[in-house]
Amino acid sequence: QQPVQSPQAVILREGEDAVINCSSSKALYSVHWYRQKHGEAPVFLMILLKGGEQKGHDKISASFNEKKQQSSLYLTASQLSYSGTYFCGTEETSGSRLTFGEGTQLTVNP
Amino acid sequence: NAGVTQTPKFRILKIGQSMTLQCTQDMNHNYMYWYRQDPGMGLKLIYYSVGAGITDKGEVPNGYNVSRSTTEDFPLRLELAAPSQTSVYFCASRRGSGANVLTFGAGSRLTVL
Q1: Which tens digit of pLDDT belongs to each residue from A2-52?
Q2: What is the DSSP string of A16-50?
């Protein structure tokens, strides 16, 4: 089952914050976050496993609410390099099938 | 390490032709995946494999076939190409499920005219 992302697009000024949400109607085993620049392959950001953990790296962090089957990606003090399309990928069981949402296009302007 | 290598990078096909997109990884990953990405859209899972000799359908398998005879290779075959198969195809691999990172190839851009 494909996860649902929101919003579809976000426009920020440099230094502003953003939240991207990912939800599923199925129980999730893991949530993966990737960023894709135009014309390039997706690049790994972070993985969260069931257990309701939260992870962070520099100014990008994420949470996973296992009970609600939801994950959120938090981008704080955004930089121009954050621009791109963000995808969440979800795994319903530890069985390998990994499906992605439609993506959230993030644009950071000076 | 080369990672995940896809060939060709670009290809133009005529309607009804067939071709194979090649994917090879040198990381000894068990799991391999094929996704397609239409312009401005998300990644759709076509087929995936959890090991040599094992394949399974994804979200959009119609018009495609795969095989996994070795751990390293996971070719995707398009039979009777149609304009609807115009897309960018990404091959990806990871060691296992859960906390294992998915590594993507650079992509293969296919146009069917």
Answers
A1: 999 999 999 999 999 999 999 999 888 899 999 999 999 999 999 998 776
A2: --EEEEEE-SS--SEEEEEEE-TTS--EEEEEEET
For B51-73, write each residue's pLDDT tens digit.
Answer: 999 999 999 999 999 999 999 99
CB atoms B35 and A87 under 8 Å: no
Q: Are B47 and B66 in contact (CB under 8 A)?
A: yes
CB–CB contact A34 B102 (8 Å): yes
What is the chain B residue with the closest CA to A31?
Answer: B98
What are the structure tokens assigned to A87, written together?
């995808």
Q: Please identify every stretch of chain B with a pLDDT value under 70, giving residue numbers as ranges.
A: 1
User: Is A96 exposed, middle or buried, given 0-12, 13-18 or 19+ CB atoms closer than 10 A?
Assistant: buried
**CA end-to-end distance (rounded Å), chain B:** 36
Structure tokens at A31: 């949530």
Which residues from chain A sit within 8 angstroms of residue B97, using beta carbons?
Answer: 29-30, 91, 94-96
Q: Is B101 exposed, middle or buried (0-12, 13-18, 19+ CB in 10 A)?
A: middle
